[in-house]
Amino acid sequence: MLLEAVDIAKSFPGEAGPVTVLGGVSLSLGQGETLALTGESGSGKSTLLTILAGLDRPDRGEVRLGGMALGPLKEAELAAVRRGRIGLVFQQFNLVPSLSVAQNIALQARLAGRHDPDWTAALAERLGLGAHLGAYPETLSGGQQQRVAVARTLAARPEVILADEPTGNLDEATGDAVLGEMLALVAETGAGLVMVTHSDRLAARLSRRLHLARGRLA
Amino acid sequence: MIRWSAAALLSHWRRHPGQLATLLLGLALATALWTGVQAINAEARASYDRAASALAQSDLPLIVPREGDSLAVADYVALRRAGWQVAPVIEGRLRLADGSARLVGLDPLTAPALPGSGGETDPARALRDFISPPGELRGHPETLAELPAETPGRRVATEALSPGTLVADIGTAARLLGMGDRVTRLLVLAPPGPEVPPLETIAPGLREAPPSPGTDIRGLTGSFHLNLAAFGMLAFAVGLFIAHGAIGLAFEQRRGAIRTLRALGVPFSTLAAVLAAEALALALVAGAAGVAMGYVLALALLPDVAATLRGLYGAPVAGSVAIRAEWWAAGLGMALLGTMLASAQSLWQLRRLPLLAAMKPRAWALASDAGQRRLALAGLVLLCAVPVALRIGGLAAGFAALAGLLLGAALILPAALSAALALAARGARSALGEWLWADARQQVPGLSLALMALLLALSANIGVSTMVASFRATFEGWLDRRLASELYLSFDSAAQAAACLPGIPAEAVLPVTRAEADLGGAPGLFYGMADHPTYRRDWPLIAAVPQVWDRLVAGEGVLVNEQWARGADLAPGGRAQIDGRGWEVLGVYADYGNPRRQAMAGLEAFRALHPGLEETRFSLRISGDPAAEAARLVAAGLRPDQVTDQQSLKAESRAVFERTFAATDALNLLTLAVAGVAIFTSLLTLQALRLPQVAPLWAMGLTRRRLAALDLARAGLLALATALLALPVGLALAWLLLAVVNVEAFGWRLPMRLFPADWLRLGLLSLAAALLAALLPALRLARVSPARLLRVFADAR
């Protein structure tokens, strides 16, 4: 199994005591599989995604990537896992504003030490960014910026892609287009994809779907 | 990974070259001010060391004449024959092209090491050259350059001597100074043994004296240098605010990039190392530039400082600056320390940055009211510490009180401004007015560091200029009273005086007679004062017993200068010891600019104590034109250096005074300029964060030009409010300088005077500086493209 989460629980301090966000969630993801995580706002989708990415630690439970438990890893080791094996796509794009489009696309691959200029160029062309490689993010539209973020993730050839509402800031048509390109490329690379979304329509385009409600799988 | 992380982070500077330039400029300016002052101090210290070591006599006891300025060579010979290990010294003034130099004649066979000696390949030949006619004149290259061509003697340049001092063989010096068979003093090279007859037996006209105080200039000038160092430190602190603001903003603007990099798998330790290395590199570049600028600053200021030290203390300081490792290291060290301090807070915030929290633009310094309250509380604690420091007393405590006052006021400023603006907002009548006040209040956190820098600079400016202006006003009045006589004459001998004086149409001829004396255990000058209405009317008495002049004339007591009175806690009615004899203190007089103790007795009482003393100096009251009379006397045969008219003396004194504060004035202005740069930096860099605040108003119908004008008004408003708050702080600073630091450092206290016109000028200057600093950001806002403003709404979606 590529990615496994077993009995993940997480709570945060609230004004009237701890607020449980995740109350024991388990899931698994195979290679090449695409999984949609849906649910209302506050259902714990994004929290689960950050725990899967090793950006946060669960109060209980365990995440395993390719059979390796993330829990015992130190911060630097977790960072190395993120760098080399996981790709993240954010709703807010999170591009580095002072780097050009080309530099942004190549960034994670370079950090992971496996930058492939041909592959990066091919990705840029596929995502319609070929004419904007020298531009800076602030001059691009939201859809173009999200394409750059997708290209950045795929350029590093991660084993798992974790996407947090990647089309949440885009209009429907642009969101559809970006997701279509992302799914096609995921299929080509054989990576697994977990995508958080509010949209049933978008979730239906993925191979599997899990619905979260009040921190539990419904 | 490190390479690409660094590339991603450093690319920020490529996209924001202006921000990089302001950061480097701020840090470099701060380093320059600090280094410049350090260079000046280092140069002065080196000159003192040269002066002290060159003649190697500062710590040797002396034998001097009981009366007069010189002793006979026969007395020296008698002492040597009796077993006294003494060396003769001749000292006098030698005319230069511009002014005069101190010429010291030493006997190379008996004196301690000669200055400029030690490196010769043939010491015997060097000695022969030194003493053989026409003899050598050793001196600093600056001094030798001013020596008239007709002055006999071979010139030997040496850096071992301070400017203004020449050394020659005793025979050469005697010829040049016309000393004949007389010497100025004897150095006691070793204490006499029990078998050696006492001094009184061999030469009753001589007496032993403690080591010459004139060479102990390091202590005298210490407070002056402390003042300069404190100013340098203040300027550096102001510069640090800039560096802190610029570095903090750079971190703030890169929060998104940092968060992304961490999410992409770059460990915190790597990012922290990259950012620390970046800060180090910036500090080194700016520090090196700052040190170089500091060198130029020192070159510009040192001539004035050197003139001050010469004029006030007689301390010889070269007018050129050598590049010394100590101030290079001090400058770079301060730049590094300052940058690291400024970076530490940002690194700490980076450590706590939540990785996936939504990006929220926030000011990089004091984001919350709670933060302002905490700072204000810390400021109050510091202000409360000021009276405690004053109670402890001493110069160090005085400076600690200064630091507490300035820092405390700076920390209180953001909260005080916020409170004042909130109060003002209540009185707003229009919606736009309400917005303007609220917006100004919202900008306080982001601008607080720059405004603190402005407050420090303005307070220092008000404080120092009040002190200088008070000093100037007092000094002018004091000069008029102290230099009441129109003409001052110095004769070579009493016989010359007796021959010359009767021919001068003077209303009064007042002897200026004096002798070196032990004043309460410290060396000083003891004067005999003639009884004349000039003194009764004009002498600058600070405190006195009733009928002070009658009692002085009757020989019932003495007047003492303020320095001695404060140093030894003397007051009218108290007792003062002069050469072991007790005198009643009849009065205390102001004696600005003199570091030594001084006392005055009635002329007859003084003459009775010094019956053999030749009276060669006189002040003359004349009704005619003093300058014309002076010219007539020179034409009649007196040398120009023997005749001084009152106006020249006053002009010279005023010139010394103005030079004294020229360096302070320059530093004052530079500190204000640094604060101006701080405001400019903050406004420029805040602009990007401000667009979301002004875009809605633009959408609601305010033109960009109007918004820019409001931004200018806001900057001016904040600068004026800061200037208003700086006024009481500056006045408190002036009081501390006049009533505490000056008294501790120099021994005199000046009355504080207020100069509201200066405050108005400074307020307008700070307003102009703020408007100038705000102009470019405002122009940018006026020209910002509608598309950019529209993007604010798109981003907020």
Number of helices of chain A: 7
User: What's the alpha carbon Rg of chain B, rounded to whole Å?
Assistant: 33 Å
Gross morphology of chain A is: globular
C-alpha-based Rg of chain A, rounded: 17 Å
Major sheet description of chain A: 6 strands, mixed
Q: Describe it for me?
A:
Chain A has a single domain (32-56, 74-217), classed as Rossmann fold, CATH 3.40.50.300. Helix content of chain A is 35%, strand content 28%. Chain A has seven helices and ten strands. Chain A has helices at 45-52, 75-85, 101-112, 117-126, 142-155, 172-189, 200-203, and strands at residues 3-14, 17-29, 34-39, 60-65, 68-69, 86-89, 160-164, 192-196, 208-213, 216-217. Chain A has a six-stranded mixed beta sheet with strand order 6-7-8-3-9-10, with helices on both faces. In chain A, strands 2-1-4-5 form a four-stranded antiparallel beta sheet, covered by helices on one side. In chain A, helix 3 (101-112) packs parallel to helix 5 and helix 5 (142-155) runs parallel beside helix 6 (172-189). The two termini of chain A are 22 Å apart. Chain B is of the alpha+beta class and 797 residues long. Helices cover 62% and strands 13% of the residues of chain B. Chain B has 24 helices and 21 strands. The A-B interface holds A 46, 50, 53, 55-56, 75-76, 79-84, 86, 88, 90, 92, 94-99, 103, 107-108, 110-113, 136, 142, 164, 169 and B 1, 3-5, 7-8, 11-12, 14-16, 254, 256-257, 259-269, 355-356, 358-359, 794, 797.
